[in-house]
């Protein structure tokens, strides 16, 4: 998979940002931090996305350096549906 670490990092950020944005609708409080820890401990998909995002972070500068048009388009095609999922999730009340 091209740009593996970059994709995983962005997905991890999107997952985390979605969680925080959903919790922040009424303002951030201490119980939001507790909820984050709880989600990390109990939601395997959430936890794996964050672990994957951090695991290869050192390889990202090299992946960015090697981006060409084809790899950039591949990255965009991969990420757009995920970004749309975040927008849809945050649009729900």
Structure description:
Helices cover 80% and strands 0% of the residues. It has 93 residues and is an all-alpha fold. It is globular and about 45 Å long. The N and C termini lie far apart (36 Å).
Q: What percentage of residues falls in helices of 4 or more residues? A: over 70%
Head-to-tail CA distance between termini:
36 Å
Q: Mean of the pLDDT scores?
A: 91
Radius of gyration: 15 Å
Low-confidence stretches: none
Number of domains: 1
Put simply, the count of helices is 5
Give helix and strand order, one letter per element, not per position: HHHHH
Overall structural class, as computed from helix and strand content, comes to: mainly alpha
Shape call: globular
Amount of beta strand:
under 5%
Would you count the extended β strands for me?
A: 0
Give a quick account of the main beta sheet: strands, pairing sense, barrel closure. none
């Amino acid at each position: 998979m091209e740009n593996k670490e970059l994709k995983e990092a962005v997905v991890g950020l999107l997952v985390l940002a979605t969680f925080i944005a959903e919790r922040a609708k009424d303002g951030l409080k201490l119980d939001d931090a507790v909820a984050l820890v709880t989600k990390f401990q109990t939601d395997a998909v959430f936890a794996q996305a964050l672990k994957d995002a951090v695991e290869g972070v050192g390889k990202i500068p090299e992946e960015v350096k090697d981006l060409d048009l084809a790899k950039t388009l591949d990255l965009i095609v991969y990420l757009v549906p995920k970004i749309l999922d975040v927008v849809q999730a945050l649009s729900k009340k």
